[in-house]
Amino acid sequence: MAVRISELNFSKGGGLIPVVTQDVNTNEVLMVAYMNEESLKKTLDTGFAHYWSRSRNSLWMKGETSGNTQKVKSIMIDCDEDTILLKVEQKGNACHTGNKTCFYRRIEKPLVI
Amino acid sequence: MAVRISELNFSKGGGLIPVVTQDVNTNEVLMVAYMNEESLKKTLDTGFAHYWSRSRNSLWMKGETSGNTQKVKSIMIDCDEDTILLKVEQKGNACHTGNKTCFYRRIEKPLVI
């Protein structure tokens, strides 16, 4: 089943939709970022992941400075039309810390304070 | 590396953190929901995923009515401390539509309008 961009609900998040990015080969979750309509269109047009930076308030192509680009293999939308799941071929590491994924730390019960 | 709840940044999202929930066996992304500090504590205390419902404005245990509970196997936090990744054993389907995952529809380029 396919959907159109116009069916997405960008309004809930003030024009932004959270995007989960998953490695197409390992299914590892690499990162979560945000897209507005412009970055989703740019992603569809170029085939490379583009996000919206909330801190810089600007369009951002993943890997534009680091070279760690994400070639998009599929774009899924959830049942509420307010979240996107990208499957990508990740070049290098996804995380700016040098880790493969941004999720490299665990929350454990004995340490909760 | 382990982190404490107090290190998490709930303020960016107005007290809420987006949570990606992944099937621990298949690595399939099942859903994205939100947690506040209370639902994270409840998740840690009970071992079952609890979220914060933005529409009902209340704490919500996944599967409390449907029976499709999520037994938590790990909780990871991202580099910015503002997103959580849960790995769970999903009982039944994760999506209220009856699909295994909430991400069952694809966005395709020719259909974008």
Give me the secondary-structure category of chain A.
Answer: mainly beta
CATH C-level class of chain A: Alpha Beta
Number of helices of chain A: 1
| Largest sheet, strands/sense/barrel of chain A | 4 strands, mixed
Specify the helix fraction band of chain A: under 10%
The averaged pLDDT of chain A comes out at 91
In the predicted model, the low-confidence regions of chain A spanning at least 5 consecutive residues are: none
The main sheet of chain A orders its strands as: 3-2-7-6
CATH topology of chain A: Ubiquitin-like (UB roll)
Give helix and strand order of chain A, one letter per element, not per position. EEEHEEEEE
CATH architecture name of chain A: Roll
Distance between the termini of chain A: 45 Å
The chain pair with the largest interface is: A-B, 45 and 45 residues
Quaternary structure classification:
homodimer
What is the total number of structural domains of chain A? 1
Question: What is the compact description of this entry?
Answer:
The first copy, chain A, has 113 residues and is mainly beta.
